[in-house]
Amino acid sequence: MIRCKPLLGTFVEISTEDGEHSLYAIEMAFKAIEQVQSLMGFHDPKSELSQINARSHLMPIRIDPWTAEVLTIARDIHLQSQGIFNCGVGHRLVEAGLLPRYIDLDDHSFGGVEDLRFIEPKLVQSEAPLCLDLGGIAKGYAVDKAVEALQAACIQSGLVNAGGDMRVFGDEAQNIQVRNPSKPSELIQLGSMKAGAIATSSLYYAKRDADAKSYMVNPLNQEHIEFSDSYSVIAGECVYADALTKVVSITGNTEHPCLSHFSAQAIQIPHNITL
Q1: What is the edge-to-edge ordering of all strands in the sheet holding 265-269?
Q2: What is the model's pTM?
């Protein structure tokens, strides 16, 4: 059984074996994704993420355990990548017109995820104004929560694919494909996978004017970067695959030390690949 729904700024496809509870399980999986989007969406001024951005430097903000988990993972990857992964670059994307302007950028000098501290497991406060964008990690987390929902409904094998952030589980191997960076309509077969996740970062679908800036920002120098290859990361969970593609894309290093720390591996697909 296959179902598809527009979520997370893309189309999310969920595939499971046919069974008595398959449709219910898929509905629960979509609800989990919707919950992640509701909690961590930058475009929603009422989301927990927006509340953190608006007020965490002024007062403690109580958050959902899911939001707390994503922020904890983001802080860990920030540490292990030596700052290459930092979701505190939202203001740069706002300045470039790539994200909505809910904060007056002129009034603040923004910190990063390293400035966010946990007072309690579900209570956070920042030492500096923040403009966090969890788009580089929350989509992968949503995929993981969808898989958890399917498994909780006794689904034995399946696949969740959110615009290239994909996780598979079960005994049935699933084909893994990525798009050709120079010809996105063309798929490249990487192999098959029974259990695990893969995510890809690229700019081939970034429909921008010639003068527009890339959505990929190097947190160390705050500069927008351009690249023509695509980078995929394979990991046990999609939250890590999603975030680590940013580390690999920004550095161009498919052997970055933090990959092994998170038991992940990276693949670079050259833009001039010939098939």
Answers
A1: 2-7, 10-16, 158-162, 165-169, 196-201, 230-235, 265-269
A2: 0.94
